[in-house]
Structure formats: C-alpha cells, structure tokens
Design brief:
Blueprint: H1 2-9, E1 13-21, H2 25-33, E2 38-45, H3 52-58, E3 62-65, H4 70-80, E4 85-88, E5 93-95, H5 99-107, E6 116-123, H6 128-144, E7 153-156, H7 157-163, H8 173-181, E8 186-195, H9 198-203, H10 205-220, H11 225-231
Parallel strand pairs: 1-2, 1-4, 2-3, 6-8
Antiparallel strand pairs: 4-7, 5-8, 6-7
Helix pairs in contact: 2-3
C-alpha cells in the first residue's frame, strides 16, 4: 500500500524507518518488505553474526554499524536519518493494514509535529494467550499512555531533538522517551504493528509477561535500567 501511495502522489512518505538489529535474520525480511514506500530504511546493526546485514542490504536498507544496545542503536540511527519524520521500529515487527495512509494523515498535519504516534499492538499468534496480552497492552496504552517499542514510535525530528532523543540504555529506552513526550502528546494509530510472539512461546506467556511487568515496576521505583538489565540477564 505504501508503494501505491507513492505512485499516486509521485513522492515517497518523508519518513526514515530506523530498525535496531542484532542477529535478526529470521524476521527482518518481512519487516523491511512491509516498509516499502518510505523515504529510507536504516538498519542499525549491533554486530550481527548471522545474515542480518546481507538481508538488509538486499532489501534496500542503509546499514549503519553501531555499538550494541537498543538505546544506543536507536540514537545512532536518528543521528544518521535524513527524513523529516522518524519511525523507530523493532526488527521483528511488521506494519500491517492501513499503516501508510495512517502515516500520511498523521504527518500531513502540521500540529502533529509536536505529537508522537504509536501503532496498535498485535501478535502473530492465534492463541487465546496472544489475544489476552493484546487486550492488556491496549489497556496499558489507553490508561497509562505507555506504548512499548514493539508498537513503533513516529516522531518529527525536531520534537525528537527537543526531547533529547533516546538515552543509551540497555532497556526501558522506549518508555523513557514516551514519558518525556507526555501522554497528552500521544496518538495511537488504527493500523496494527504485528510483532513476533516467538519469545513468548519460548519463555512461556506468563513468565515473559511477568518479566516485562517486573522491568516496568522496577523502572518506576527508580531502579537504574542497567541494574534492571543485570537482574533479568539482558
């Protein structure tokens, strides 16, 4: 659909998609293929030893080498991006449905340069556990204004700069930036960002969910993200 919009308007979406990677070969091709029609795709790689870099280059992404760490990689990608809008996206998250139209509508309003947007959350799993987790995330975003990075984050480069950008944290970098933006600035787009449920299936739905909740709770209690990362072996 993004390609269709480009053909109709004669221009690509003025968006730089920034994807941090580390051995992301199994999912990256689907993620990049779904992003066609944006101005550029940047893959910021933290030292992959699989086919991640080759896949990214084959699908037309610009690859940037970076020190390892999602916050570090996202910050590096933003500094290299050329688009007016920055869309931060996980390597195992695929944009679906009307996302190009949603992006075009959101970025086309000048007032949204002072707002941030995230996609609706979805998982590529048909189980009841997946649907339950999707409902929990919907509640968290609606009532707490806390989307995670697996919902993508769309922000104008000037607002990103004004907020100070991503911090070089090993985790919680997404919550940190969204909190600095403030829930009043948040828009949730209708299109779904569908993320791989592989880690939930491997670790167990409850165990992984409680792990994520534990990280969030410790963060709000003021525990350093680096300490949280050590506690959870990240």
């Amino acid at each position: 659909m993004a390609a269709d919009i480009a053909e109709q308007t004669g221009a690509l979406l003025d968006v730089s998609v920034i994807i941090p990677t580390l051995n992301a070969a199994p999912q990256l091709a689907n993620t990049l293929s779904a992003c066609r029609g944006v101005a550029e795709m940047l893959v910021v790689d933290g030292g992959s030893t699989d086919e991640t870099v080759a896949i990214a280059m084959r699908l037309g992404a610009r690859v940037i080498a970076s020190d390892r760490g999602r916050g570090v990689q996202l910050h590096r990608g933003a500094s290299e991006a050329r688009g007016s809008w920055l869309l931060f996206l996980h390597a195992d998250t695929v944009l679906t449905g009307s996302w190009p139209r949603d992006l075009q509508d959101f970025t086309g309003q000048a007032s949204n340069r002072l707002r941030v947007a995230a996609f609706s959350f979805g998982l590529d799993d048909s189980s009841a556990s997946a649907r339950r987790l999707e409902r929990i995330v919907t509640w968290r975003v609606r009532h707490l204004g806390l989307p995670y990075g697996d919902q993508g984050l769309l922000i104008h480069r000037e607002l990103y700069r004004l907020l100070g950008g991503y911090r070089a944290w090993p985790l919680m970098e997404d919550v940190d930036l969204v909190r600095r933006a403030g829930r009043r600035r948040l828009t949730v787009l209708a299109a779904v960002a569908r993320t791989s449920a592989t880690r939930f299936r491997q670790e167990g739905w409850r165990r992984r969910s409680w792990r994520n909740f534990g990280c969030l709770a410790l963060y709000f209690l003021g525990v350093s993200p680096r300490v949280i990362a050590r506690l959870y072996g990240k």
